[in-house]
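Troubleshooting: if your tokenizer reports a length mismatch, compare against these two reference records.
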Amino acid sequence: MSLQPNAGSQGELSGLLAIRGYHLANGNAERTICLIPSSAHGTNAASAVLAGMKVVVVACDELGNVDLDDLRAKIAEHADSLAALMITYPSTHGVYEHEVGTICQAVHAAGGQVYVDGANLNALLGFARYGDFGGDVSHLNLHKTFCIPHGGGGPGVGPVAAKAHLAPFLPGHPLAQDEEHYLRGADGTADTVVHGGGPVSAAPYGSPGILPISWAYVRMMGAAGLKQATGAAVLAANYVAKGLEGAYPLLYSGENGLVAHECILDLRPLTAATGVTVDDVAKRLVDYGFHAPTMSFPVSGTLMVEPTESEDLGEIDRFHRGHDRDQGRSGCRRRRYLAGRRQPAAQRAAHGAVGDRGGVGARLRPRDRRLPAAQPHPRKILAAGPQDRQRLRRPEPGLRLPAPRGLRRLAASAAP
């Protein structure tokens, strides 16, 4: 694992450079072809070109999956020069590639490596692992799956992880890492390997200042909470898709008409009939606190809607019903209205079943009296936005806050 990349796009570049270095080390300089499905993020092709590879596009079928016949034809055509396949799972079309294992096997049989774009790990975490179905290297989007800020010019972190045979070629830095380092296997033995990867950013360790956000998120959620967040993200996307499918047809869906972490709404018929554009609908969704939708990608005239794991299904339901009645309520009536929607305490503290001896899922509490005293925290949390659209939200699951009276006593005892 390397934490040096400052963004998911740099993570892609790092992974492809590792694949390129691996082929060069094995004397296969001619392996420069990178297969990329037409459903991929645009950064995939850019990263492949920056890594010195040539992009060959693989078609998708009418359901949004990779076209296996076209994939096999492209592999056969470029068998001697195939370097890698880049695939996003779940795909950017918002579907799970059911044949992803077969796809990875076909690439490996031709001598290529598989890069799995981890941009959509928020629809997989806790249920499956990229390496299990054939991935060799991946980057993770901390801004989507692990809670750091999204967009705005950074800083960002796009850590890249690889299997052991590619690890020596992950990013290094001449001023912070020796040429030789140790790779410790699952059996506990350590082998000396030569590090052949160059830096992808100026700082040896990328942007570590924001990593405590992801660390705290993982500690508070615990293994069970992270899995529950994945389920909530997929549930929210399907809730939106089913609620809006009568007005906005879905462009792609998997078995039983279900989607993964996002859904693509086909607004082209609506635009032709009424003049309502993807921009109009996107602005309305943002007004209701949704993750900013992607306009006209991957298909022009469509809208990609992606509720994140932190979305409140109550907010989604209020948007679906199309009323703003709560906005005119007094503060007192709003509090009574929201009080009935709070999550039960047993569900809020899902991580509490894990022991208190440290590790993932342990309760966060001072380890000794030298730590700073807890600071008062508002019991009501306001979502960002215009004053007349602020919405009260419950605390995140597992975050336990002291009562205000206890905080006052604590502050009084700490006073000189």
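Reference record two:
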Amino acid sequence: MRILVTGDRGYIGTVLVPMLMAEGHEVIGLDSDLYQRCTFGEGLPENKTIRKDLRDVEAADLEGFDAVMHLAALSNDPLGNLNPDLTYDINYHASVKLAQLAKQVGVPRYIFSSSCSTYGAASGDQMLTEDAEFNPVTPYGESKVFVERDVAQLADDNFSPVFLRNATAYGVSPRLRFDIVLNNLVAWAYSTGKVLIKSDGTPWRPIIHIEDISRAFIAALNAPREVIHNQAFNVGRNDQNYRIREIADIVKETVPGCEIEYAQDAGPDKRSYRVDFTKIAEKLPEFQPQWDARKGAQELYEAYRKVDLKLDEFEGPKYKRIDHIKQLLGNGTLDSTLRWTKVEA
């Protein structure tokens, strides 16, 4: 198939694209490449990519594709809070426009990278199915809810959207993120000897490796239309729901000589959700996750050791997304709408 992957230069996209290409698909990317200076380790995949802001996509950009896999977004809560209006412009309005244009030019399948953060502040320890109430607590989470709501209304006999509500991602990528829990805890443990917990450790969080997220996208691509048409799927494994303190224990057991420490201002985190992944296991049997938290922690530890990761790298503008964007804004490389003022080579 001929597939457009938005966000192909991002954290998940740089892992998903080679997996799609290995399946024999022709993959074209679309990405504004805000993090082109932030490549970690090995180089990027060798697919053709369109350097373009998601808000500026036109119908002609989408012609001739069999599917759109939409990952591009301002992809964490601090970045989303930097300017909530921009978060809604990019993550919500531009995502709906992308679906409308895809439908207009006859793209039959639109696979949206949603998030379990749509569940937000869930009460108690109950397992949340796809029918659970949304309760997002951030602009990022809200934007995902709004996209699902509006794009679902576009579904018809010729246009099949599917919404993949990913658990919290982890794993090594050429565009590695350090703001997500397992990646962050292993980085602190390796570089400082402290597994630094920034909450009180009690919130529930389901986690999933980015290769397994990519497997879910491929399964949704290959599934019969009637299985995925206008459906939402929680993406993860039931046995990979953890309290933050349990993830910290796994990191402590993985990284030699480290100790768990709570940040001085550590308190409860409103974001807490325990998620049921039965539906994807039953409806998309091709989705076979290969990773768990222990295996992921080991992969991250070995990657950090290979480059001798330093605290000021992952907590500074080299890899910390919010600080990198602020740096680009500060030196005028990006304008206030997060568009490039000059294209870098």
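Descriptive notes for reference record two:
- The two ends are 30 Å apart (CA to CA).
- The chain has a mean pLDDT of 94.
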